[in-house]
Amino acid sequence: MLKKSLSLLQKEAYETGTNTLSRKLNAFNLIAIGIGVIIGAGLFSLTGIAAASHTGPAITLSFLLAAVGCAFSALCYAEFASLVPVSGSAYTYSYATFGELFAWIIGWDLILEYSVGASTVAISWSQYLIRFLSNFGLHLPPQLVISPFETVTLADGSVTHGIFNLPAILIVVGITLVIIRGVKTSALFNAVIVVLKVSIVVVFIALGWQYINPSNYIPYIPRNTGTFGEFGVSGIFRGAGVIFFVFIGFDIVATMAQETKNPKRNMPIGIIGSLVICTILFVLFGHVLTGLANYTEFKNSAAPIAIAIEKTPYAWLSPAIILAILVGYVSVILVDLMGQSRVFFTMSRDGLLPKVFSVLHSKFRTPYKSNIFLCVFIALFAGFVPIRVVGELVSIGTLLAFVMVCIGVLVLRKTQPDIPRPFRTPWVPLVPVLGVLTCLVLMFSLPLDTWIRLFVWLVIGLVIYFSYGRKSSSLRKSFTLEKQQNAPDGLYICHKITDCTN
3-class DSSP state for residue 256? Predict the structure, then answer.
């Protein structure tokens, strides 16, 4: 239960030297990183699913409700990120408030979230690439686009097994090379992608607005069918739960804290700014989507955006949207890989993971060995494991991290009320409590098998912690007390004078 003091964390945050991350990011870069991971293909698929099954045109209200739920956690993240601008995000915040064991649990949990999330997106990116290339008559060998555990039926009716998913592997390798080149290069690459995909979303909103059929909004909130969550007010809440996961990702901004110029100012701007911009875009997108086509037309459709585009004379928008999904996935993979390597970096510097993960490149000052390890691990998952297995492992970890951060704000406000806070979460304890309740409700709405997989993953993590991390912990070593020779009972000395008291 040993905790890292805030003074020690702040000292680490502003260390300088060759083995420290390079501070290159400004507020715009952070907002772009947040938007890059929030706007993914989920926007183009989950919106139609939620509208058809739960909300009808009131999908806009569900977006607002989900955004408010995310905002509770985002405000808590903003306070921590400005107070302790260290790369570890929720892992570091838990270290300061709950102690090393809880920090390890959250850090291990984030490894699951980012790594498996990147694998899932890489596999989906491969599938969309195949669809995009087919529009131009280009077709990849079927054996090289699926895992060896999957089969595909060829045009002649024969069935063949996959070898590996080559496009998924290549996208992970390519993005890793960009990340190793440095955070500034990665941020620029991400910014270009974000501008492209946001532009396509804005074009859809602008062009589709003039073809909205007002009758599609009647009734705006369809009458409940008698089953909770199927339209009516309860449908709006159920819809918010479905699309809540579209917003997840702003927390990755917090992992960039040690690479940010003036983090006390820029971190809150990046976290809250990206959430606000995406909320506005999502509400407008949902309004146009359900205005172009009746919500009932999206039933059982994996591509509701295509149905909406058919209501306009702009047929060219369909391949453009697929392109937006492709580039959207690229930025999600990039930010996931960046966030994961930064969590690895921080846990390694704390001694909980091997030191190799905190070695920085002599020129680019990036944790390149961590990047290479994650590239191999995630590429193997993406290339050889079916998406249905990988995809089931995502989401619950993020909500658990949100809960810990919200509780952490309450703990620090109680235990250290007088420390200077560059950004203060408003309306404490109301906002953190609402953040905890929102996330717990969504966690308990997930299937039992999701909880079982999380439990198994955490058990594996605890075995690693007690067999390696606990013994190697840098903080534990610096606070190891040794009985002084010929000293009175109760008098001890520290191996290192690092925030030692008494």
Answer: helix
